[in-house]
Amino acid sequence: MVLNKSIRWRGFDPVTAEHCHIIATERDTRMRGAIITPTYGLFYRIKLDEAGQTRTLKLDRTDGKTLELFADGAGNWSDDRAEPLSALHGCIDIDIWPTPLTNSLPVWRSQWTLDMPQRFAMAWIDGDDMSVRRNEQIYTKLDATHFRFQSADFERVLEIDADGLVLAYPGLFERTI
Predict the structure, then answer these.
(1) For residues 6 and 29, is the Cβ–Cβ distance under 8 A?
(2) Residue 85 main-chain phi, psi, to 5 deg
(3) Cα separation, 124 vs 176, whole angstroms
(4) Measuring CA to CA, which of 19, 120, 148, 177 is 20 to 30 A from 168?
(5) For the segment 112-168, what is each residue's pLDDT rounded down to a tens digit?
(6) 78 forms bridges with which residues in the sheet?
(7) Residues 6 or more apart from 115 whose CB is under 8 A from it?
(8) CA-closest candidate to residue 111, choices 152, 71, 73, 164
């Protein structure tokens, strides 16, 4: 995938605004973005390797809270002190709340067959409290522009563009540019 694109999303619950820029080459993918929520601002930087696997993540909030994670691409994670995060073992992708950007990571990285669900172990990051935990998610490609997303008792059908980026995430986000 080769991409050099800016995207903006509006969030509905809570009301948020996000601007993200993605630069993807055959060597790696780098994403930088800023999210404004009612209670904080969040800056993120994500780097994927050539196989589309998350290698580094850095979150900085406007109140000074930070989170930095490193992955080896084989499902092993550590924090900024090089301490292993065994609870994330086996997670390849990340999912950051509150952004729809990270829903693209498994979409980009995987081979898809219509109506065949795929399970992913995600390193789920809650920007509200800067916590990290393992989260099991299921994605199912429904057609060229729609994926069913499931996690526990939550389900939505996501609309994506030709680059695999979310256009509409019903009830939570919509793309503005």
Answers:
(1) no
(2) -110, 80
(3) 25
(4) 120
(5) 999 999 999 999 999 999 999 999 999 999 999 999 999 999 999 999 999 999 999
(6) 70, 84
(7) 140, 141, 142
(8) 164
